[in-house]
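User: I'm new to structure prediction. If I give you an amino acid sequence, what do you actually give back? Let's try with this one:
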Amino acid sequence: MEFEVQKYPEPTLKDLFADPVMLAVLKRDGLTVDDVKLVVSRYQKRVAPRSF
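Assistant: Good question. You get back a string of structure tokens that encode the predicted 3D arrangement of the chain. For your 52 residues, that looks like this:
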């Protein structure tokens, strides 16, 4: 039996940061959108040089 896997694109960060549920979770955790953007930016700078 073969299962068909449907692939859905992941939401962009812009989409996530516009989502009220995401914003509520960030607020609950004491974080801001800028906090998350900073972490993502640092990660990208660290990982980008190792691109394949």
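You can read the tokens as a compact description of the fold. Here is one thing that stands out. Residues 33-47 form the longest helix (15 residues).
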